[in-house]
Design goal:
The structure is a single chain. This protein is an alpha/beta fold. The protein folds into 2 domains: 218 residues, Spore Coat Polysaccharide Biosynthesis Protein SpsA, Chain A (Alpha-Beta Complex), CATH 3.90.550.10; 159 residues, 2-C-methyl-D-erythritol 2,4-cyclodiphosphate synthase (60s Ribosomal Protein L30, Chain: A). It is built from 12 helices and 19 strands. The strands form 5 sheets. Strands 1, 4, 5, 6, 7, 10, 11 and 12 form an 8-stranded mixed sheet that branches. A 5-stranded mixed sheet has the order 16-13-19-17-18. Bound molecules: cytidine-5'-triphosphate (CTP) and magnesium ion (MG). Cytidine-5'-triphosphate binds next to strand 1 and helix 3.
Length: 386
């Protein structure tokens, strides 16, 4: 049977949700809201072509959100939601779909079950069908704050999207209603005399309207996982006059040998961050012998790891670093190291811990041949889609 083409209206300004990034592009648990909406919608095998209607002023946000998704090219919306829908329907017309559903980008919790209910109604012959929720609160009519009537709530319902229709019927209804101000597509279809059926709405299919709704949506998604990475590194001493450890310069009668400034503390930190993100290791990102990294401060490596964290929408929860050597004595630098690393990571210092230890004179560290470091990093990042 025919799939249902979808018009996703995402051309609004999201004014009630507050200033900043428009609500449909606001990151929720690491992904823009529109990505969640499209992902949930396209998980349904009942959905065919997907036409997003956007504000070309949001081009950059849109491209980031839509990347990798199988969508028709977006079309520009209008001043009202109704105009935006009409633009979306016109863009779909050349594809001549049998059915269409119109859905708000702001309802990210749409489910395959809800879409299946709509499709079943269309296949039974409905020209239009929308999800409706029962009204559970008592509803009053008021005039200047004074109640004039208690309405019979059993005869009332709350309309949601997606709202599904025979494509041609909805397109004609929208063309005819162009210029009027009707609040949903069912109202447009009603005005054209189309009988609209209802199916059970989904209480979870909330619309994000206010800033608080964004927080509630993020809590409901809750799809974040905790990951751990470890790092281990050793650098040998060489002739010199100082060592760099955890971003702090420490005067010493030797230095550490290596391509960069050989900061073993930062190297293990970066390796642990890369490990937590499943991004390989230092060698993957900074090949040994690469002239670009010769003599560079290891803080630049941390900056690259932080960029990768941003790319993965990951947050650092905690970093615990251990430095192992006989000399120099490091205890008095611990707090400066902690502060410096927190600064490099852009986190509060309570999320960083530095430990220093010796090996009781045993092994290469005990013999004063070099310094070893070890790190464990804990991050939070969005759960992968699959
Ligand atoms: N919408 C649209 N074109 C418009 C107005 C709204 O495509 N001219 C879309 C919105 O992007 C949203 C849906 O219609 O996905 C429902 O509208 P609403 O929740 O009111 O969103 P906004 O208009 O963006 O928000 P606000 O009214 O708070 O500015
Ligand atoms: Mg609006």
């Amino acid at each position: 049977m025919d799939k249902i083409a979808a018009v996703i209206v995402a051309a609004g300004r999201g004014e009630r949700a507050g200033a900043g990034v428009p609500k449909q592009y606001r990151p929720l648990v690491g992904r823009p809201m529109l990505v969640w909406t499209l992902h949930h919608l396209m998980a349904s095998t009942d959905v065919g072509l997907v036409q997003v209607v956007f504000d070309p002023g949001h081009q950059d946000y849109y491209e980031e959100a839509a990347s990798g998704l199988d969508l028709l090219d977006p079309v520009a919306g209008g001043v009202t939601r109704q105009e935006s829908v009409l633009n979306g329907l016109r863009a779909l017309a050349p594809h001549n779909p049998r059915y269409v559903m119109v859905h708000d980008a702001a309802r990210l919790f749409v489910t395959s079950e809800l879409i299946a209910r709509l499709r079943a109604a269309l296949e039974e012959g409905a020209q239009g069908v929308i999800p409706l929720l029962p009204v559970t609160d008592t509803v009053k009519r008021t005039d200047a704050g004074i109640i004039t009537e208690t309405l019979d709530r059993s005869a009332l319902g709350l309309a949601q999207t997606p709202q599904a229709f025979v494509f041609q019927a909805l397109l004609e209804a929208h063309e005819a209603a162009s210029g009027q101000e009707l609040t949903d597509d069912a109202a447009v279809a009603e005005a054209a005399g189309i009988m609209i059926h209802t199916v059970a709405g989904d209480p979870g299919n909330m619309k994000v309207t206010m800033a608080d709704d964004l927080d509630a949506a993020a809590r409901r998604l809750g799809r974040e996982e905790t990951r751990t990475g470890t790092g281990l590194d050793v650098h040998a001493f060489a002739p010199g006059d100082h060592v760099m450890l955890c971003g702090i310069r420490i005067e010493h009668d030797q230095t550490l040998d290596g391509d960069s400034d050989a900061d073993v503390g930062l190297h293990v930190l970066v390796d642990a961050m890369l490990g937590a993100m499943s991004e390989g290791d230092l060698g993957t990102h900074f090949p040994v012998g690469d002239p670009a990294w010769k003599g560079r401060a290891s803080s630049d490596l941390v900056a690259v790891a932080c960029d990768l964290m941003d790319k993965h929408q990951a947050r650092l929860i905690h970093a615990d670093i251990t430095l192992i050597c006989e000399k120099p004595r490091l205890a008095r630098y611990q707090s400066a190291m902690k502060v410096r690393i927190a600064e490099l990571l852009g986190v509060d210092a309570t999320r960083v811990n530095i430990k220093v230890t010796s090996t009781d004179g045993l092994g290469f560290a005990g013999r004063g041949e070099g310094i070893a470091g070890q790190a464990v990093v804990t991050i939070a990042m969005p759960v992968p889609w699959t």
